[in-house]
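Checklist before submission:
- one chain only
- standard amino acids only
- sequence pasted in full

Submission:
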Amino acid sequence: MKYISFLLFIALMAFSNFNLSAQSFTDWDWDTYGVKFSAPSTFKVQTNNEDEFTAKLSNDLLHLSIIPWKDASLTKATLKKSVKDLCKEMGFSAAETGTIHDLELNGFQGCYAMITKDGVSMIIEGLLDPASPTNFYTIIVYGPGYEDKAIQMANSFSK
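Returned file contents:
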């Protein structure tokens, strides 16, 4: 899957020693799907098309990818399995993935995993849109000192 190669590249690039600087958050809107979220105002968009939205900070310590996928039959239970499968496909064992937590988030139902392996930290969310067959994975890769910002972003998604 092309996203996995991209994410591994992000993970390798994300962990240089940079000083944490104050980042103000601003509202973003992925117009293609009407997905709204908050992210640092200094985020630079890398990809913005119907297959993917990707942005990052210039210091490579915070990255976001949103990946849409269609499944009208999706339920919270099957979404949890999909997130586990995505984590496995990205090379994380069940033990590394840990518990997949339920999530109710501003019009989305879903679940998430927080994973750290070999110095790489990620939040992987599965977001189910009950009003549409289009659902989303969000993958947030973050470096040291950026966990609070990653969590703030992860909790901001809305439709």
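Reviewer check: Helices lie at 2-13, 76-89, 94-97, 147-154.
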